[in-house]
Write a structure and sequence with these properties.
binds flavin-adenine dinucleotide, alpha/beta, five-stranded parallel beta sheet
Length: about 400
């Protein structure tokens, strides 16, 4: 079916925004991306790309470069934080890929970001453009930027992350919900740590806290995240630096492999963990949201990037299949929202008390992680086995 041409303005060149641009371009839709940062840089630490995300990127033609940039852990292991005793070992690798129809990858966020950025011509990524306002009329949408410029488009997509300006424009001010804990993230050279099993997704658990680690960068580095109590919420920012001496002090009684990992960090990011209640709706006639702007969630199921990838593919497909007439974009955005809102709300709710929290060891319950890992696999199955394209096809 041929339609009048459509132009889409994507606000935010994160994982979600760049995947959206990639998917739209493959479907022949004209797109420009506007990013507040002056450069696309080496930001972030370790990130998970679960099978529900990796299989979609493979269908977008990125399977080979993704496999080269990522690590596919062969197993998941839960260890006691104090003794290092292996409490549970769950094979992953091919078994996981077969079960969930796609590999579970771990990688540096910067590597995934660079791979996606390479799919969009530089002329269509506009840097240093911070969106400050969005105004809709019957013919399209205007986005104003902090530098005094503006752009005009048929459809605007807010892929501008957890502090989304477009979300505020659509939904008004809201209070994020603080979880009481923080994620301290860092990446350390593999040569600086010893005693870690190769190619394994590790969780150490004990009454003092949890530490998760996985290899990145072709095993040349390990990324870790420590989930620790956070008495003073520091804002949901990715740019705050962690206090390394406090981090080391929190893990002084940990087994040597966990301790050397923490001690090898020369810098780490501190992210107070916030969540937001699902919105009742996130689209208007010409504007919609995706990724963390639409449905920020706690990171315990490692689904942030994969849900953004699902949104991107779903939105691009709905826009490509729009009908004719002036209401076609609005109908496509409504279809996209209808497909994604209930599913992402379920995934978000599941991640509230799930993920590695299920593997914690309350005092007097040494077998808890063994029971917890079965529950964790059942929990992540909801998100990881879901195929957004199959769901979309079934609804047409
Ligand atoms: P994001 O990845 O947050 O991208 C949002 C983009 O929008 C950013 O590039 C931001 O600069 C831009 N933006 C924001 N406001 C505006 C505006 N007003 N105008 C224009 N552009 C705007 N997750 C992990 O698991 N591990 C990590 O190490 C990690 N590091 C991160 C580092 C950074 C700097 C950011 C922004 C996010 C990080 N995340 C990390 C979060 C993770 O990328 C997301 O949860 C997930 O990928 C969903 O992506 P998203 O595209 O919805 O949002």
């Amino acid at each position: 079916m041929s339609h009048p041409p459509l132009h889409v303005a994507v606000i935010g060149a994160g994982i979600g925004g760049l995947t959206t641009a990639t998917a739209l371009r493959r479907l022949g839709i004209d797109v420009d991306v506007y990013e507040q940062a002056p450069a696309l840089g080496e930001i972030g630490a370790g990130i998970h790309l679960a099978p529900n995300g990796s299989r979609l990127l493979a269908r977008l033609g990125l399977g080979t470069p993704l496999h080269a940039a990522a690590v596919q852990p062969a197993a998941m292991e839960v260890r006691a934080l104090d003794t290092g005793a292996v409490l549970v070992r769950q094979p992953m690798g091919k078994l996981w890929a077969d079960r969930f129809d796609g590999p579970h990858y771990t990688l540096h966020r910067a590597d995934l970001h660079a791979l996606l950025a390479a799919q969009v011509p530089a002329a269509h990524i506009h840097l240093g453009r911070r969106a400050v306002a969005v105004t809709e009329d019957t013919g399209g949408v205007t986005i104003d930027f902090a530098d005094g410029t503006a752009c005009r488009s048929d459809v605007a997509v807010g892929a501008d992350g957890v502090h989304s300006v477009l979300r505020r424009a659509l939904a008004g001010p809201e209070r994020p919900v603080f979880s009481g804990s923080a994620a301290i993230r860092a990446v350390v050279p593999a040569d600086d740590v010893t005693g870690l099993p190769a190619n394994t997704l590790l969780t150490w658990t004990g009454p003092a806290g949890r530490l998760l680690a996985h290899p990145v960068r072709s095993h040349r580095a390990w990324a870790f995240v420590a989930v620790v109590p956070d008495p003073r919420a520091a804002g949901d920012s990715w740019s705050r630096t962690a206090d390394l001496s406090a981090l080391r002090a929190a893990f002084t009684d940990a087994e040597p492999a966990a301790r050397t990992l923490v001690e090898a960090a020369t810098e780490a990011g501190h992210w107070s963990l916030y969540d937001r209640q699902p919105l009742p709706r996130w689209s208007t006639a010409r504007t919609t949201l995706l990724g963390d702007a639409a449905h920020p969630m706690l990171p315990h199921h490692g689904q942030g990037a994969s849900q953004a990838v699902e949104d991107a593919v779903a939105l691009a497909t709905c826009l490509a299949r729009r009908g004719d007439g002036p209401n076609a974009p609005a109908a496509a955005l409504a279809r996209y929202e209808n497909l994604r809102l209930a599913h992402t709300s379920r995934v978000r709710e599941n991640s509230l008390g799930g993920g590695s929290e299920r593997l914690s060891t309350p005092p007097g319950a040494p077998d808890a992680p063994r029971a917890g890992i079965g529950q964790l696999v059942r929990d992540v199955a909801l998100a990881q086995s879901y195929d957004v394209e199959a769901d979309l096809a079934a609804r047409v």
